[in-house]
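Please, structure for the following, as tokens.
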Amino acid sequence: MGSQVRKQTNVASILVVSNPSDTPTRFGYHWLKLFSEYATKRGHQIIFQKTPTLEILRQALIKYNPHFIIANGHGGFKTLSVDSNILIGIESYDEAINKKLTRQNPTWFKGRLVYLATCNAGRELAPCLVNYGAKAVAGYKEAFIFLTEEERSNPAYDKLAEPFFKAMLQLPLHLVNGETFGYGINAVKKTFERYRNEAESKGEEETALYLNHNLINFVSYGNMGSRL
């Protein structure tokens, strides 16, 4: 996965939410499965939800009480949806998805680390979760953009998409190796920078452009000293 094994601390319960319902989430699903296999080998408990609903998410939070949650889907400014189900939301009108939410659930994430691995949710949803008690949250203020060799290519062999997801996953990789949230945040940024610079040196302007786009829109809130 491109991360050095550093040190192991506490064994943690990690909830991964991802459904391969379209091309973007199909790639996210593939890479999160690889992360989950890695984290399991490091001794952590992984709960992988492929078919989530709001009630299934709630039951998982109650049953497993995960320390860390990674959700890959489609983000609004105030919402995160997986396979058309809004799983995280703030009561208000969300301009990004043109929907008004009459209920909200940010308190579900109190005391947890959260990675909103989607578009847009870093703008308002991420800081709101921290305001409601999440330890630390990371996300992207605008669209998370990656390139593929072709729309139906196999994520396991798509070298054009690979650097985007390897950079994105540095946060959870370093967390499961015992590092702080802030360390993982810096690792994401440094990896985006490294791949961007490599693309620029090769004259791959479009790749460099979108790697930089993700870099500048990657944000984090909360206690950067938090660990699993």
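Residues 1-6 have pLDDT under 50 and may be disordered. The CA atoms of residues 182 and 224 lie 4 Å apart.
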